[in-house]
Amino acid sequence: MGVCGAVFDADARKRAATGTQLAGSVQWTALDNPHRGAVADAAQRPAAVVHRTTANPTLAEPDGHGLTVLPFWAGERSPGWHDNAQAAILGMTLHTTPDDIARASLEAVVYQLAAIDETLSGMFDKPPALFAAGGVLAGSPAWAQVVADVLGRDVTLCADPQASARGSALLALASVSQVAGQALETVIEPIAQNVYHARPAFTERYAAARKRQGRAYDLLIKA
Fold this sequence. Notes:
Blueprint: H1 13-24, H2 38-44, H3 46-54, E1 68-70, E2 88-90, H4 98-121, E3 131-132, H5 135-139, H6 141-151, E4 155-158, H7 163-173, E5 178-179, E6 182-183, E7 192-196, H8 200-222
Helix pairs in contact: 1-4, 2-3, 2-4, 3-4, 4-6, 6-8
């Protein structure tokens, strides 16, 4: 995911720039090893994992796997910045399947995005409009819907294929009032491909899963 259009005041720019690093470049570098499995599948073929697990009535439900994942295979970036953080998968039983692990790992990353979104949104009187982009979301409407459900608000999917680069450029341009004779406000509006609306019942269940992840984070990462 990447920021393809937003308006930040001067105090918010640094937080926005750092906060979107996870959203723009979730690097599962530790997965490039010979011991491939469900987590590697989630990292390399997320759209396929979402399509497959969405077809499963149990996994299509929010937190249907019952697992708690700390997705820090390469340490943590935003929002905690713990370089030495390690990944963990909690709650596995003899009945846990590879798809359970893959789906839970993907959802865990979105929980991190939700934490970043809450931090940035708290700097405004009301949450700004949220625009997202990326091949994973563009190729998987079901996954884009999961993002909206976890965040608990509408997510507009951008049509711009270079949204992350565009968002970074806009943050830099936000320090000037005009760009090529145009007011900045006239050049930051992204082209919308689709809008995904949060489903309150799903958001509530994901919120409970996020709290469970938060307790595990406090115990294993902050301790």
